[in-house]
From TrEMBL:
Residues 32-156 form the Phosphoribosyltransferase domain. 5-phospho-alpha-D-ribose 1-diphosphate binds at residues 128-132. The keyword Transferase applies. GO terms for molecular function: xanthine phosphoribosyltransferase activity. One of its GO terms (cellular component) is cytoplasm. Transmembrane segments: none annotated. The keyword Magnesium does not apply. Converts the preformed base xanthine, a product of nucleic acid breakdown, to xanthosine 5'-monophosphate (XMP), so it can be reused for RNA or DNA synthesis. It catalyses: XMP + diphosphate = xanthine + 5-phospho-alpha-D-ribose 1-diphosphate. This is Xanthine phosphoribosyltransferase. Homodimer. It is found in: Cytoplasm.
Length: 189
């Protein structure tokens, strides 16, 4: 998606050879017009797979998953990272290492929100090693729901996550693929 690539070049901050900060458009401040276009692009890519729910994980996946679900006119679920007092006891949960925080967190979805037969589209902001996406995939499997694909805003293709999921036969679409962050520069595929 050319618009996203252009915005990454304009505002992306290369923190290290492995981490890109997009705090002014996606990860802290949100650019609503950009995020709406991203949702429309995911909707265009996946509409034919007939998803009936979008699933993401809090927090940075939420805006993109929301605009995707809005465009497709289907509900959006975000997996929560910690059990809250108001959360149902009956949950599907997975332990997921966090790439940016360097800790392990539990992500969970109330079992009344995902059902066998649901056609689920997973959306997230970045893919690095693929742990977050794999955790969401396992939640879909535990619910007996059907995964139609995975949409990722920014795939760092020099890391293994995206291809490791494609190797399982799952469709993964990314809007921008970054080949390298070396030398403090963003190089796209
Ligand atoms: P993975 O689980 O694929 O290793 O990492 C994906 C998760 O880590 C995403 O949900 C995203 O929030 C975060 N992440 C991974 N790489 C980056 C990065 O370069 N920049 C930012 N801002 N987040 C990242």
């Amino acid at each position: 998606m050319e618009l996203l690539k252009r915005r990454i070049q304009e505002v992306g901050v290369v923190v290290s050879d492995k981490v890109l900060k997009l705090d002014t458009i996606l990860n802290h401040q949100i650019d609503p017009a950009l995020v709406l276009e991203m949702g429309r692009e995911f909707a265009r890519l996946f509409r034919e797979t007939k998803p009936d729910k979008v699933l993401t994980v809090e927090s940075s996946g939420i805006p993109i998953a929301y605009t995707t679900a809005l465009t497709l006119e289907i509900p959006m679920i975000f997996a929560r990272r910690k059990k809250t007092l108001t959360m149902d006891q009956d949950t599907y949960s997975e332990r997921v290492p966090s790439f940016t925080k360097g800790i392990v967190t539990d992500i969970m979805v109330s079992s009344h929100l995902l059902h066998p037969g649901d056609r689920v589209l997973i959306i997230d902001d970045f893919i690095a090693n693929g742990d977050a996406a794999r955790g969401l995939i396992r939640i879909v499997e535990k619910a007996g729901a059907e995964l139609v694909g995975v949409g990722i805003a920014v795939e760092k293709s020099f890391q293994a996550g995206g291809n490791s999921i494609r190797e399982k036969g799952i469709r993964v679409e990314s809007l921008a693929r970054i080949a390298s962050l070396e030398g403090g520069r963003v190089t796209f595929d």
